[in-house]
Every structure is written in C-alpha cells, then in structure tokens.
Design goal:
Shape: globular
Number of helices: 10
Helix content: 25-40%
Largest sheet: 10 strands, mixed
Bound molecules: zinc ion
Distance between the termini: 62 Å
C-alpha cells in the first residue's frame, strides 16, 4: 500500500512538473518574448550567388542558399519566390511587357538532385529528409535568363541591367509556406533578412551598384560584394558611358548618386538626397548602413541600400525623398508588402511629406502629392487589405493618399509635425529589423498615446 501511495504521489509530482514546463513554454509572456527576439537575431538565409553575363546578354545564375528552419515545425519542403518565372503573359494576367525568358537547369539539396515544382513565382523544393527546427540545409538553384527590354523592375534598358527580385528568395514561413502569385501592382513577395555574397562576371567593364556596400565607384568586369541583414538583394549593371556619378556624404553614410549624362541633374539630385537622408536620420533615427546608392533610371522603386528614382529633374523631388524614406519604413522596419502595404507605403509617404513641408516651411505643401493621390480615385474604407483586394486605382489612392492624409489630420490636432516625428521615431526604434503588422501597429499606437484610440484606428484599420 505504501508503495502504491508513493507511486501515485510520484505520478502527480511528475504531472505537475510537466504541466509547469508546458505552461511556461505556452503561456509565459516573457518566454514568448524571448522566443520572438531570438527569431529576429537569427538570419534564416545565407545566400552565395554567382552571376555571369554573356556577350549575347544572357545571364547564368548559380544560387546556393543555406536555409535554417527557424520555425517550430518540421519541414518537408522549402518555399522560394522565383519571380522571373512569372514575368510572362502565360503566368501573369495583365502582364504588359516583353516576356522574360528563364530556364532552370538544376535544383539540388545538400548536393543531391532534388524534386521541385515551379508555378507562377512559387518554387517549392522537396527535401529528401525532413528538416527539423534549427537545422540547416543547403539549396542550390541554377538557371539562365534573358531580361525583357524596358521591363518592369527586372529589366534591361539598352546596355544597362537592373536586377530586382532576380534570385530564389526564401519565403516567409508561418504555419506553412504562403507564396503569393506575382502581382506587379505592388510588391507581392514577403522576404526576410538574409546575408549575401554575390560575385559577378561581365563581358566588359560596367558600373555596378548593389544592396551591399560597394565602395569606390569604378567600372569593373568582375567582383564580389557582400552584405548582411538585407531584406532583398538588388544589383544594377550600368554602361559607364551613359552615367555621371558622385559620392556625397550624409552624416556617416556615403550616398553614391548616378544620373544620366544627358539629364545634367547630378548636383541637384545629390544635394536633395543628402538633405532628406540627414533629416530622416535626425528626426526618425540612425540608419545603421554605411552606403545608399541612388540611380536615376526612372524606376521609382526602393530596395535595401539602393533606390531607383526619376530620370528628370521635374519629377525628382517627391520620388527621391519617398524612396529614401523607404529605407526606414520597408527595409529597416519591415512588413509583409502583400497584406500590409499600407504600413511601408503609407508611413513612407507620410515621412516624405513631412520632410518636404519642412524643406519649404509650408505645412501643406509637402502633402500635395498625397492629397492628389487621395483625390485620384475613391479610396477604400479599410487600408489594410491584401494586394489582390484593391482595384489598381484604389490601391494607389488608399495607400499613398488616404493613409498619409489621415495621419496628417490626426497629428495636426496634436501640435503637428513635431509630435508626428516623435511618434515615427519611437516606432522606428521599437521595431528595427522586425516584421510589423497592423495589429502590432495598433498596440504600439495605443500604448504610445496612452489610452483608447480605437475610434480613430478602427475607422480605417480592419
Ligand atoms: Zn513606395
């Protein structure tokens, strides 16, 4: 009898201990925070990419990606975005440009040939053995591609090559892979921070500008660039005869500015860029990266540490400032651009409007672009819609127009620009190198303003 009783006590004691352990992992708030912090400190993908361009203007790409399973699930496959595969009229409805030609020649995992499927921009690589949490596997993908002339983002323009979303980009795993189809209306790929080594081999000397710190600007036919903590890696290969360039200082960063020789706009572009960069650093927060490249190729697009801006002086101001502000909101504080585009586009346009207002000392002038955007088409009631639920016109008017305008109105009632910048600065400080979403924004907003903000927030956020 005694034994039985002690046995029962032992069973109960073990039960209590197991319960406490399970409870501490499932419910302890601190433990949850530790988990999420750990997630952000870990780089999930280490890319080693070799790129070569032939005399016939065909790229060969060999990408090796060390992937860590950062989730709590066991993986049987790994999802990547291979956007070049969707850049044709067969895969993408309403695709307007020349088709991009891509030919995938091999996919392997840890040196062994692997099964894979490729649909639209979703590349799913099958693993021969399951990948346990925290384990690493090396995926290699080789392919050739010919870029569309004057295409969208990933494009060849005469003897210049603009490589956006050009390599297999690791998807964002959350209870499964969720690789959305390519949608050129916004950015349809949700990628996380990675470390990159990219080597290039070109048929002659070109100017190369990338998401890495490229250093002194000199035309070269080969080289290797490296960058850490980069959300997606962009690279431009430019004919030196077509560009003039200079490097200007903005606080501790080098801004490498490239403008078309024919446009005669280098000095003005550099000056405005440096002013905007310094303003965002001083009012919102330090940018930890040492170099920002600025290419005036009419791309109107942000990438980590490099932006594409207008190629004429008249359009430059609002474009240049907007794309610079994206380094703070999109790159250093990041979000899913498919489901939460309002967060990066809206806060970027808001920040850039604040700078332009300050620059001209006119509280309304900076918001001229946003108010025009809002007028352009009836905006949606709720701004946090996925990309495919917006019409083309309402996406633009809602995300670029309505969001900055309603924030302006809110802050105008709270002593205006100073309060707005302090808020943006606190938000930037809190979420650097983190993925934010609408819910996190709401919680932060309510804590920051110490009290119920639901009437305001719920009127435009679902
Ligand atoms: Zn933008």
């Amino acid at each position: 009898m005694k034994l039985k009783v002690w046995g029962g006590v032992l069973v109960i004691a073990i039960g209590v201990i197991v319960f406490l352990i399970v409870r501490s992992t499932l419910f302890c708030e601190d433990c949850g925070n530790q988990e999420s912090e750990k997630e952000h400190d870990t780089i999930n993908a280490v890319y080693d990419i070799e790129l070569s361009l032939s005399k016939t203007e065909e790229f060969q790409i060999a990408a090796a990606i060390g992937v860590t399973n950062y989730s709590r699930d066991t993986w049987s496959d790994i999802g990547f975005y291979l956007v070049p595969n969707a850049m044709n009229s067969e895969e993408t409805r309403l695709y307007e440009d020349e088709d991009l030609e891509i030919d995938v020649s091999s996919v392997s995992v840890d040196g062994q040939k692997a099964e894979y499927s490729l649909n639209n921009n979703e590349l799913m690589v099958e693993l021969n053995t399951n990948l346990e949490p925290a384990s690493v596997v090396n995926v290699a993908v080789e392919y050739s591609m010919v870029l569309p002339q004057n295409g969208m983002r990933l494009s060849q323009v005469d003897d210049n090559f603009y490589l956006a979303h050009w390599y297999p980009m690791l998807g964002h795993y959350q209870d499964g892979w969720d690789i959305k189809d390519y949608d050129s209306k916004g950015e349809s790929y949700d990628t996380d921070y990675g470390d990159f080594t990219v080597s290039f081999d070109l048929p002659k000397d070109y100017l190369v500008a990338s998401s890495a710190e490229d250093g002194a600007t000199e035309a070269a036919s080969s080289g290797t660039v490296q960058g850490e903590n980069i959300k997606d890696f962009y690279l431009a290969i430019m004919n030196p005869d077509e560009w003039e360039f200079e490097t200007v200082q903005a606080n501790s960063a080098d801004l490498r500015v490239f403008t078309p020789r024919s446009a005669n706009m280098l000095e003005e572009t550099s000056e405005l860029a440096a002013d905007a960069y310094v303003y965002f650093e001083e009012n919102i927060g330090d940018n930890p990266f040492g170099e920002l490249d600025i290419i005036a190729n009419d791309g109107y697009m942000e990438y980590p540490n490099i932006i594409e801006v207008a190629a004429d002086e008249e359009s430059q101001e609002s474009v240049l400032v907007h794309e610079i502000a994206h380094q703070w909101f999109y790159f250093i504080v990041t979000n899913d651009p498919y489901n939460e585009a309002w967060l990066d586009e809206g806060l970027t346009e808001f920040s850039s409007s604040l700078f332009i207002s300050d620059y001209y000392d006119d509280d309304e002038y900076g918001f001229w672009g946003a108010s025009m955007a809002q007028e352009y088409y009836p905006p949606e009631t709720y701004v946090n819609l996925p990309l495919d639920e917006f019409e083309e016109g309402s996406y633009y008017s809602t995300v670029y127009g309505k969001v900055p305008m309603l924030l302006k109105e809110y802050f105008d009632n709270l002593e205006g620009d100073r309060t707005a910048l302090e808020f943006l600065s606190a938000y930037y400080t809190e979420y650097q190198f983190e993925q934010v979403d609408t819910e996190k924004f709401k919680v932060f907003f309510e804590e920051y303003f110490e009290g119920d903000q639901s009437e305001f927030l719920d009127s435009w956020l679902k």
